[in-house]
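Data availability (excerpt). The following record was deposited with the supplementary files.
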Amino acid sequence: MQSATRSAFGRLGLVALAVLFVVAVSLAKGIRRGARLDLTENELYTLSPGTIGTLGKIEEPINLYFFFSDRATSDIPYLRAYAGRVRDMLREFAQRSDGKLRFREIDPVPFSDEEDRAAQFGLQGIRIETTPDPIFLGLAGSNSVGDEQVIGFLDPSKEAFLEYELAKLVYALANPKRPVVGLITSLPMNAGFDPMTQQMRQPWTITTQLQQLFELRMIDSTTQEIAEDVQVLMVVHPKTLSDATLYAIDQFVLRGGRAMLFVDPWCEADPGNPQDPANAMGGGRSSNLDRLLGAWGVTVTDDSFVGDDRNALQVMGPDGQPVRDLGLIGIDEAGLDAEDVVTSGLSLVNLGFAGAISASETAAATLVPLVRSSEYAGLVATAMLGFMSDPEMLRRDFKPTGERYVMAARISGKVPSAFPEGAPQEAAKGGTPHLAAAENPVNVVLVADADLLSDRLWVQTQNFFGQRVANAFANNGDFVVNTLDNLLGSGDLIGIRGRASFSRPFTRVEELRRAADERFRLTEERLKQELRETEQELTELQARREDRDALILSPEQELELERFRQQRVNIRRELRQVQRNLDQDIERLGDVLKAVNIGLVPLLISVASLAALLLRRRWTRS
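Predicted structure:
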């Protein structure tokens, strides 16, 4: 009787739990429709606060069209997996936009209306050998006034910046007005009359590019006020700026204006003033913003530049022979911040006699390096450049310090004003109140070199049937455009950093491959060294012959040649063995993983199930 009663109560309890579960699920769907829990290691499916802020500021409806060749990629799992990643993030965007963002996926099958629509947006399919049809993996968007933005191809190799690229496209559609970039410079970056050559000069290539992308507004170096519609201020090689102009820049930044600042301890592109006695000795080529930067706790060397023995570029010496110049350096991926959208993807940025940027321990500003030297770098006095006729002179007393010097960096933080006492007397008296400090963190990119903007360091131009054609050999232009493009975004957009990749590589396998490659390289180097030694021995044997007959090998040469051939066979056998050992190590690791996944995991589950069953029976008997 007691057992039957217990059984009845057990059945009623199960029914009650089932009803409670159904009610809970229904309530969850009604209260938090679409709610999900991101359990990935790096929170791949959780949007950053910057993206959420960007989506929350959309005022008019935006349509997004994701063009993906679903049928054509049926046998390309890697692209399908990445397309799924893009699809999930776009759905998360739409869900967070409060209905202002509408997302639609389109498969542009060949010879269909969908393919024509992709072509109308300017999308082009890529060709892959494994499929006869072009593959589309792009995104197009439009807003309520007919503006369009397109990402031609969502490159899987740039997956770390997928969220930034999507948020940037949405921001551009939500804010379609052409941005204004103000430029203050003492350099001849614009077209004009050159008094030295008595001819008209062409604008710098970087100026032409900026005019094509933005509304570039030239601002006089004596200005006392920065217009409110200027979104980013670009200050290049500022020389002898008045306190009134410095105050205008100071207050512009503190009010939330973004800035890209270029200062230089030695600017080769500076033509100087022929009337200035300092130019006779090569002086007068430095610029600084010490008053502003000093208030923030940031300094830039103005009497020395960064010499880098590892990254030094080759130039023509006075004797016409190539020579490496410690002051002209090319920074590759090793010195560029791979986690910042500005420098990620760039392969080479060339600089000329750049200064070193640093921040004090008590600095109000936060410094994030973008471009750094190698550890084979040191500081060289700019005074040497005024008397230098041969770049080799820089190497005589040069000693690397082992420090990696910062030559471009982001500056952020709630920095104080460089004019704590208020506006200087000569400053324009306007209605804008004085700010003693920034209310919100500032957004500034500081570069300790202005020469990187000049054509000499990154681009070659030539006249082709009346048109100027530019061929870039470095990424200086990309660096500047990326930086301005990033600063022109909202504060939320600037805050979006690179994310981790959704692909999980076999790190242990990669370690095995690296170790095998190292062994392979060492063995190959040994083979080349023995080849060189044998060739030298053959040459010496030939030199000792009395008959001097170069067409017939002597017995000693034949023996030496036969010995080398045998050594080469043995070493090639060693190289094959190294590769074979790598394959065996990877296969052995695969066997262990198979054993764990196929055998051990099911065994553990079975043991846990049996243990739960025994505990349940014991509880039932008791």
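Summary of structural features: The CA atoms of residues 137 and 155 lie 8 Å apart.
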